[in-house]
Amino acid sequence: MEVVLTFITATLLPALIKILIALVIYWIGNKLIKFVLNLTGKAMEKANLDAGVQTFLKSALKIVLFVVLVFAIISYLGIATTGIAALFASAGVTVGLALQGSLSNLAGGVLILVLKPFKVGEYIIACGAEGTVTSIEILCTKLLTVDNKVVIIPNGSLANSNITNVSREEFRRVDLVFGVAYESDLKLVKNLLQQIGDRHELALHDEAHPVTVFINEFGASSIDFGFRVWCKNSDYWTVKWDLMEKVKDAFDANNIEIPFNQLDVHMQNQ
To answer: Is the pTM above the cut of 0.90?
Structure first.
């Protein structure tokens, strides 16, 4: 019994106290990390850093601080940190080979932040997906689609793909094609399209951004007119949908036929 009490008081109790103190250190350290991250975030906002850069730096800082905290706790518990550091160093090559994709994504995130092909809040098309950039993180970039889906793209793939930044420029051109029957009055069609473009309140009407109407192609069953109208980027979809509706109404009012594919089926009685 005396041996048990000696073991409890001399070995077990100090070990439990150390573990409890280590947990307290972790709790305090976790609070400090949150405080530092919050302080850093406010400092970056005051410095007017890009939102993507802020997210990336905060994520990297969070990882570094947690690594420091873990090493501090390990050191307090009396575990040799030099041995652990050596173990990490020796395993570095193996881990690097195993995490080639993650390292590629990390490098891709750095490239995105340096080259800035897009920023948080811009609408992009890349890697077979499109949407508004909501965050640029260490390993991935998140997009929000127009139908409210979240798309997560690895930064490595994103940095090595073609990226179309839809919202970077202030103005955008609406490109439409309308097919009319070969019997249609081409001058009338052209005048109608020109008037619709010239009269639209959201369209631009200056020399640098003219309304353009032209014959685009002689198709198999229709003459295809190209119709180009410039507008503000934010008005793109409103202008596109409105133009399509106005053109259909104008064609109907002037008896201009829009051809469509038809299939004639002939039945024979045997």
So the answer is: no
